[in-house]
Structure formats: structure tokens, C-alpha cells
Amino acid sequence: AQKITQTQPGMFVQEKEAVTLDCTYDTSDPSYGLFWYKQPSSGEMIFLIYQGSYDQQNATEGRYSLNFQKARKSANLVISASQLGDSAMYFCAMREDYTGRRALTFGSGTRLQVQP
Amino acid sequence: DAGVIQSPRHEVTEMGQEVTLRCKPISGHDYLFWYRQTMMRGLELLIYFNNNVPIDDSGMPEDRFSAKMPNASFSTLKIQPSEPRDSAVYFCASSTGSQLKYQETQYFGPGTRLLVL
Hints:
The complex is a heterodimer. Helices cover 0% and strands 50% of the residues of chain A. Chain A contains no helices and 12 strands. Chain A has strands spanning 4-5, 10-14, 19-21, 24-25, 32-39, 46-52, 60-61, 64-69, 74-79, 88-96, 105-106, 110-115. In chain A, the strands form 3 sheets. In chain A, strands 2, 5, 6, 10, 11 and 12 form a 6-stranded mixed β-sheet that branches. A 4-stranded antiparallel β-sheet of chain A has the order 3-9-8-7, with no helix packed on it. In chain A, strand 5 (32-39) and strand 6 form a beta hairpin. Chain A is globular and about 45 Å long. The termini of chain A are far apart. In chain B, 0% of the residues lie in helices and 53% in strands. Chain B has no helices and 11 strands. In chain B, a hairpin with a 2-residue loop joins strand 7 (65-71) and strand 8 (74-79). Chain B is globular and about 45 Å long. The chains are: A mainly beta, B mainly beta.
């Protein structure tokens, strides 16, 4: 079974609007971390936001927020006030902490295109 | 502060040749990861080190791949002999081993784009 599922291969959003990128995960570990990374066309992987499984509040970092619904095993990324520079691939990833394994498991990504 | 440094940024080689990719992690980070990105398989872990010791190499495709970390500031990923199916972007990432999980965020290098002809 896929550990990280991103069901939206591509998304379009108008500049200045908000957009939600979906991510669902599958783990039996009681402790885990969820990450979102941005990969622009230049290819680098840029860390955006982190949510721990025990965090009581949804994570926020500037225009990025994470809509964490633990019971539904979802960790959707919300980008508010989209900008043209937000056009990129976005990857959701998980680290399963209970086993002590430090590696990330990535989803297949969502390509976001912001239209003027 | 310098981020993760990888070299070369681009590599074109012929099938059968040896390829060596290099990585310098962020100073003070004690975890180093090698990932590979392809269209077919996405981003996948190859191997990771903690304090220069390989911890998990379950993602290394086969014996043609090897990785070393001789010291805290340098790691190599070697492919010998290379094959066309090794064409991919290879990322190196590093993180700290803090008890504060947030501080274990992995920071990625710019990647090495490898093309094997």
C-alpha cells in the first residue's frame, strides 16, 4: 500500500487565491512527522512546513498552513494568496519516528500552476 | 550559511563508465541521506548515514551502487558500471539528530542530474 498518496497530479489556481493540495498517509506508527517540500522548475527541493503527529495545532509558516486531520490521516497543504512564484511541484513526505528510521517517504507530487 | 553542496551538478557519461557523485552536508548535521528521483519511481531513499556510519542501505539498487562517508563533511555515491536506467536526479540531504523533531528537517542539496547514454 502507498504510504503517501497525493491524488492531484496537477492543479491550477488564480493568482491571489488560496489553494489546497491534498495528502493522505498510511502508518501504524504512533509517532511520525509530515513534511511538505516545493520543487520549482530549477529542480531544488525546498522545505516548506512540518507537522508532528502529536502537535495539537496545525502548523503554519507564512502563507503556508497544514490542515492536519489525524483521524482521517490527511495532511493537506494550504497556500494562501497564491503568487506566480508558487508554480512548482509540491511533495508531501512522512518520517515514521517510532521505528527510529530517519528516512522520508515521498508522495508522487502535485504540479501547481498559478495563473495571472 | 552554506547549504548542502553537491557536485557535479550535471553528469553525462556512457554506459559502463564509473560515476562518482559528491556531497558536503550542512556543518553540524549528523545525518546524511542519498535520494534518487526518476519519473517512474519518484523520490526514493538509497542510503543514509548517521555519524558517518551507514544505517539503512535497503534502497541501494544493486551491487553497482556504493556509498561512503569517510568524514562528517563528505560523502560519495559511486555507480560502477553505470547503465542507462541509472539516469536520474540524485539528491543529497542532511539533518540534525535532535530530540526536537522539527530540527530533524532534511535539507536538500541542488541535486546531480545524471544521464547515462
